[in-house]
């Protein structure tokens, strides 16, 4: 089986799983389909020989963030009664509006994206961890360090938000 | 790709599958025997000599029992839960190097299913998705005890993954590679990481206990509070898969600990052997390390009482994570000194 065919099949499955996230009625099932989507995206990375990116995608998104999503959803009491009722007119108008948006987007991007423009990176081993590390800590060291500062800022912010509820006792 | 490689990997993978399940099955037997020994009892001794056929009897019993699904349960997810638990437990062994290369039928066969250059990250990826089996199973049962067990399991696993990951980073820094085979080779000649990183080993071991839901961290299935935790509603082989997954997980995490800290398949005086003798001896050495670690896992279970949940969280977040970060920093500074990156 050629790589192209495999990519096509996995790409189709990815889109299918992503659609199921939106379509499925139950939030827990949506989250589970989102996890499936992440796994399929990771397999696309592996086809591009970017193993490190693939496994980090699984560890961070499927392994950590989605667990927290599922965790929160399990604590919420979600059932049929607590579901907000959507009027019919809103449903119909949203379908029409998003359909028109899709049409406009297709019209806008019809000429700009051609399949010949999409190609694999010239160097085949660019995604391996050694090359990635060299790039991150050499050429792109400044953006890398800046993003780490951003992470620390968000961590401090999260701790501050979680602590604010406590009364201050002196 | 040549067909020989495909067949060789296929045989190795199926062998691993059988061995993992066999060891998991006999772990249940040894666990009961060990518990009996520690509590001054006889233990299982009816099926076969010394009760050696007990795991088979247990397996048959599991299969014969009625497979019951609660009416309010989510049927598909109820089935999916134990499946994912077992799948993720078995997946990890794919990247473990079980011994040195063996030559057979004129081919050199590596005793490792996949030598990926991100081996340790692969293991962490699988471990981090392992929690889904328990979460989905516990949620789909539609039972308060099950859901409590699932929530406890997930919060416990998220908390201990962090300290585990940081202590693994320390080991990666020591060996300079993410591939498990390279980590093992870097410890050749009694240069085992345990001698250089004892603190890291303790952190990793405690986290491994928590990740496999073993006592003293078995709060997700704590009988006195939650009946059975996440598998309260399960019966028949679905329950069997959950219990089995725990033992497979114990086997695999013992293997990972042996690789990271006890030199994997290295053993003292291995340079005086070569060829297939070396390969067989290395496999034997690796498995004896694994069995000793499994024994320690069981020993801890039957001697140390269970933690309280807030104590568990306190230990995870306020003790192990800071300790592992300090350990990583110190290791980094020492490595920088040794390599001559910092000079005074």
Describe the structure.
Chain A has 170 residues and is an all-alpha fold. Helix content of chain A is 72%, strand content 0%. Among the domains of chain A are: 1-78, Four Helix Bundle (Hemerythrin (Met), subunit A); 128-165. Chain A has helices at residues 3-23, 27-47, 51-75, 88-109, 129-139, 141-163. The longest helix of chain A is centred in the middle third of the chain and has 25 residues, at 51-75. In chain B, strand 1 and strand 2 form a beta hairpin. At the A-B interface, helix 2 and helix 3 of A face helix 4 and helix 5 of B.
What is this structure's SSE topology?
The complex is a heterodimer of chains A (170) and B (344).
Chain A: H1 3-23, H2 27-47, H3 51-75, H4 88-109, H5 129-139, H6 141-163
Helix pairs in contact in A: 1-2, 2-3
Chain B: H1 3-38, H2 54-64, H3 75-91, E1 102-104, E2 107-109, H4 119-140, H5 144-175, H6 180-186, H7 193-196, H8 198-211, H9 223-226, H10 236-261, H11 275-303, H12 309-339
Antiparallel strand pairs in B: 1-2
Which CATH-level-2 architecture of the domain at 1-78 in chain A?
A: Up-down Bundle
* Annotation, overall tally of beta strands of chain B: 2
Order of helices and strands of chain B: HHHEEHHHHHHHHH
The average pLDDT score of chain B comes to 83
Distance between the termini of chain B: 54 Å
Q: Roughly what fraction of the amino acids of chain A lie in strands?
A: under 5%
Q: Point out poorly predicted stretches of chain B.
A: none
Shape of chain B: globular
Tally the helices of chain A: 6
How does the major sheet of chain A shape up?
A: none
Structural class of the helices, strands and pairings of chain B? mainly alpha
CATH-defined superfamily of the domain at 1-78 in chain A: NADH-ubiquinone/plastoquinone oxidoreductase chain 6, subunit NuoJ
Write out the strand line-up for the largest beta sheet of chain B, numbering strands in chain order. Answer: 1-2
Estimate what percentage of residues of chain B fall within beta strands. under 5%
Helix content range of the residues of chain B, please? 55-70%
- Rg for CA atoms of chain B: 21 Å
Outline the low-pLDDT stretches of chain A: none
């Amino acid at each position: 089986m050629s790589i192209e065919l495999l990519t096509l099949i996995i790409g189709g499955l990815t889109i299918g799983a992503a659609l199921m996230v939106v379509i499925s009625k139950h939030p827990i099932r949506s989250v589970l389909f989102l996890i499936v989507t992440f796994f399929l995206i990771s397999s696309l990375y592996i086809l591009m020989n970017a193993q490190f990116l693939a496994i980090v995608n699984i560890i961070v998104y499927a392994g950590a963030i989605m667990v927290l999503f599922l965790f929160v959803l399990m604590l919420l009491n979600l059932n049929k009664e607590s579901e907000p009722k959507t009027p019919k007119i809103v449903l119909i108008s949203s379908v029409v509006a998003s359909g028109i948006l899709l049409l406009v987007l297709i019209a806008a991007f019809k000429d700009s994206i051609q399949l010949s423009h999409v190609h694999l990176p010239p160097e085949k081993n660019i995604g391996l961890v050694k090359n990635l590390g060299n790039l991150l800590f050499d050429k792109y060291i400044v953006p890398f360090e800046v993003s780490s500062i951003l992470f620390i800022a968000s961590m401090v912010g999260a701790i501050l938000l979680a602590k604010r509820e406590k009364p201050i006792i002196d | 790709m040549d067909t020989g490689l495909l067949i060789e990997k296929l045989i190795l993978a199926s062998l691993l599958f059988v061995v993992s399940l066999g060891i998991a099955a006999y772990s249940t037997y040894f666990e009961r025997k060990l518990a009996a020994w520690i509590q001054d009892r006889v233990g299982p001794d009816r099926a076969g000599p010394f009760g050696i056929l007990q795991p088979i009897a247990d397996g048959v019993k599991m299969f014969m029992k009625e497979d019951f699904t609660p009416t309010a349960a989510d049927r598909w997810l109820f089935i999916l839960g134990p499946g994912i638990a077992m799948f993720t437990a078995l997946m990890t062994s794919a990247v473990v190097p079980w011994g040195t290369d063996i030559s057979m039928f004129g081919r050199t066969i590596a005793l490792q299913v996949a030598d990926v250059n991100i081996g340790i990250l692969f293991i962490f990826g699988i471990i981090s998705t392992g929690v889904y089996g328990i979460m989905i199973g516990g949620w789909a049962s539609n039972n308060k005890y099950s859901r409590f067990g699932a929530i406890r399991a997930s919060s416990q696993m998220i908390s201990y993954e962090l300290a585990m990951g940081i202590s693994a980073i320390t080991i990666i820094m020591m060996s300079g590679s993410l591939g498990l085979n390279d980590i093992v080779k870097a410890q050749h000649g009694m240069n085992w990481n345990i001698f250089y990183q004892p603190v890291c080993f303790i952190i990793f071991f405690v986290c491994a206990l928590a990740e496999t839901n073993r006592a003293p961290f078995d709060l997700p299935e704590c009988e006195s509070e939650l009946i059975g935790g996440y598998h309260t509603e399960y019966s028949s082989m679905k329950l069997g898969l959950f219990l089995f997954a725990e033992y497979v997980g114990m086997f695999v995490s013992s293997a990972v600990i042996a690789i990271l800290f006890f030199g994997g398949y290295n053993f003292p005086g291995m340079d005086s052997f070569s060829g297939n003798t070396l390969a067989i001896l290395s496999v034997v050495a690796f498995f004896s390390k694994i069995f000793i670690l499994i024994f320690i896992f069981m020993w801890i279970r039957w001697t140390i009482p269970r933690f309280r949940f807030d104590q568990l969280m306190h230990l995870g977040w306020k003790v192990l994570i800071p300790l592992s970060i300090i350990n990583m920093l110190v290791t980094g500074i020492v490595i920088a000194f040794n390599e001559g990156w910092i000079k005074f």
